[in-house]
Fold these 2 entries.
Entry 1:
Amino acid sequence: MTTERRQPWLRMTPLELRSYLVALLAAVYTIAWRAIGGTTPVTESTAAVKREPRTVWVDSPARVFQPAPAQPVVRAPIQRAPRVRTRSS
Amino acid sequence: MWTFRAMNTNIAVAAPELDEDSERALALRVERLFARTEERFSRFSPTSELAELNRTEGPIVVSDEMLSLLVRARAHATETGGIFEPAVGGTLPVLGYDRSFAPGALDREDDALASAPGSIRMLEIDEERRRVTRPPCVQIDFGGFLKGLTVDRAASLTTARVMVDAGGDAVVHGAGWEVDIEDPHDAARTLGTVSVRDQAVATSAANRRHWRRGTQVMHHLIDPRTGAPAQTDVVQATVFAPTAERADVMAKVAFVLGADAAARALEQRRLAAVLVLRGGAIRTVGAVELRHA
């Protein structure tokens, strides 16, 4: 005579199994919802926002469009008599 | 002495008789003056008033300050027979100078196209209504003229003995100042020194802002008569004048005219200068005592 030992999940009652499957399906549905996006109808105003985003991020804007960084006024090394050095610049 | 960056160059402010806090406060006021001026009148900033003038077709009402700059620049152009010409702003981009200068940044493989430069004297300026009409061929670039003028204004912010030096365009108020003139063939060397009081100085040379366009070497000092970079026997012109605005204008004129014509033009106006010629010879004009290094 052989004794067959059932795996723990196989020892669930039909009621427990149904609850388990419902929870699993709910989790899958939630993940899919978040990944795909909601199905809320797009109103006119939100459509306009999607067509013309108000903020556009650019990795490297052209130099002329970059804000000029504030240039600190710094003290030069002390000289006994400051001099002009004239050159083309 | 205090330093900061503006107009793509180093600015130095020194007022040795002021205490440290007062000298720093003065430097901060000078820094704000340069920043405001650059913001409004740079040809490289698309939001500047100058950029708006340069792209507007038809009459445009300009600010009082813009009107003043245009009238002053036009007066210099007239007084120098068109050799000083701030309307070469349309020529420089054609030659490749279409952004703020950095070594190598302007080099291109294709050749430059010939262009006919406009003139600031072609602007219609209605001073009463502050209304300016620009022909399409005229693109204004105040360049060093504006830098010189800003240096003058900065130095007038104090009654103390002061030096304001914007990358070689400088004003000194008071006595006891020394001006070192850079060697255009070796920027690390000093050609000589001049003692000055209550004076301004400016230098024009092609050794720093030059670039390659196709097979030609370009620089930013344009001869308005040809629309091309000036090619004369002058390698560097240093002019001493009562204001940096005047010194900057006449340094460009001297570079473009060549040594003999420059000497005549400077003597007529009682200005002093140190000209470095091709081959390295030095020619002084007017009352200037150059002590060789």
Entry 2:
Amino acid sequence: MKQKSLKEPITDTNLLLAITIGIFFAMYILAMVVWGGGFLRPQQLFDIFNNNAALIIVSCGLTIVMIAGGIDISVGGVIALVVMSCVVHLDNGGSVFSALMMALGIGVIFGLVHGYLVAYLEIQPFIVTLAGMFFARGMTTVVSIEPQTAQNAEFLALKDFRVEIPWLGYVTKSGDLIPGRLEVGVLIAMVVVVLAFVMLRWTRAGRSLYAVGGNRQSAMMLGINVRRTRFMSYLISGVLSGIAGFVFLTHTGAGNATNAAGAEMNAIASSIIGGTLLTGGVGNIIGTLFGALSLNTIKAIVVASGLREPWWQSITTGAMLCFFILLQSVVLSVRGKGGSKAMQPLLRKKEAKNE
Amino acid sequence: MKGTSKFRSEYSQLLIPLIALALIVIFNLFRDPTFFSVMLTTNNLGNTVLTGNLVSILNGASELAILSMGMTLVTAACGGQDISVGAAAAIAGSVFIKILRVGAITPGTILLAFLTCCVVAMLFAAFNGTLVAVFNIQPMIATLILFTAGRSVAYWINGGATPTVSSPLITAIGGFIPGIPIPTPIFIVIICGILFALAFKFTNLALYMQAVGINQGAARLNGINTVGTKLLSFIILGLCVAVAGCIGVSRLGLINHETLLIEIEMDAILAVAIGGNALGGGKFKMAGSVIGAYAIQALTTTLYAMRVSSTSIKAYKAVVIILIVVIGSPIVKDAINKYFAKNKQKRATVATGGEQ
């Protein structure tokens, strides 16, 4: 039995996942060796988590939508709307619980509308979620155009709460132990990642997502409710953007109309680096997690390496994205699943030789 | 009868953008008929110019119209959209200004700067095109790279500043040529439109793009160079980006990498979609996209005229977009057709019943 499983060819999903994880660790170890300092402390990794908990959550949502063959570019706007609404609600005497419900409610509404328009009225997902983004960004400024800071005591307690891990801390020069610190948002993000992973891997709903994204026609013939599955993918993405908005708020504690600008593109980039294909049917949540981490590790490396001009971060991010995209294309073409045409003549030669 | 059905299939695609435009016009007629008034005034440079909402719609939509022309081709041939046009336009604008700031501004240097910026924009477009055509990457993903890095590249070209140029010649490009009351960008759009019309009339460009978009394999078997066609669509879009970038920069006389043509990629894709073109590629009508672009600008101008704040305008825009696409959705169309067919049947049965 074991031997048979060894002989089984590795799937595209797993291969792309392995590459992403490998490159993330290679990059991090390189950073530890070359720049040392902060990278040697676990807190550096924790900070990457702390700063990007919301991004990880929306990336999970986008991965699910992309696996089902769609796209959702409204997530950044929904985060901004949720953050602003929650801050205003908290400052007007709302409780943390009702703010959380509000965040979920906004997410659910966006998810329902997107899902209905895309799945049941068959409108192009890009246009629907683009309108969603416009609407959310516009409504954010209607809620409040001025930046707002949350002053609710109950909320501030939640915001300043840290999970402390003493054995992953470090000792300062004066001899004090500073424990590793994780924010609440990271815990929520981890729960989301685990739930999404379990759903995609072991549940019927998750399997249908892959089937619908891979080939809608054959999924329908297998008796999968294609419309409901696509609807569900947008609903999940909407709910997760609502949660991400709340997590974003626990990190920053303030609402601003430009919050989470470009979050949708970062989330798409994370998913792609993690091996999700926009064509649908291929993707993995663990890959997305490592994609988001890689994306932000490279930013930390740029800062550490002394490239202080503001433009280097995006330029290196773009270069890394280019590298991963080309890598995926080449990998897929080597494995004979479309991908790069540039590689095909080379492959044909190889085959000719083998014959 | 045959003629009408052909006419229908040829032009029914233009129905959606025209209805959208008509709705906005009718709404404005009821709201405030003075919306359409056009006046001759003297601007602060002493030129006699046309002003009014109509002129500002036609003028303001210039960049969008030009970009939507290029975007239509990319959409048709590649079945995807280029989301990096705003960032690429920022790069093109930066190059334009960088060269103009070297020496005195004469028509010669402007032409040189424009040609250089066309070359740069075409190179970036060729990079996108190579990823799409040769490496078979989805256009949106391939252009995400330039979308992420583009504005930073422009910032880097500008050396971390927002350089300015001031010259009557630049003002003439972005504003009015002395003696002519119509804004210059409108002429540039007309020239671009004529060039595309001539290209479609005298070359196989449109046919090849559609063939590649509808069925790549079939197109290749028929001897069309699919890789070259896709690449060409991106390079043409690159030219459009260069023109739009130069207009955008000339309007203000400065380049701000953060705000130049911000989010225009979304509007351009929207214009293509409102124009009734399938975002999945294949057949296209460029006129639809251009009408779509003007409809978007008309909507924006209408909202401004209604004193909607510039930041919340997006929310209203979203509602209108959803309304338009819902009306245009195949499912809704089918439902409406069925409803009318049923009514007809009913009437027919009633009529025959009456005879008996």
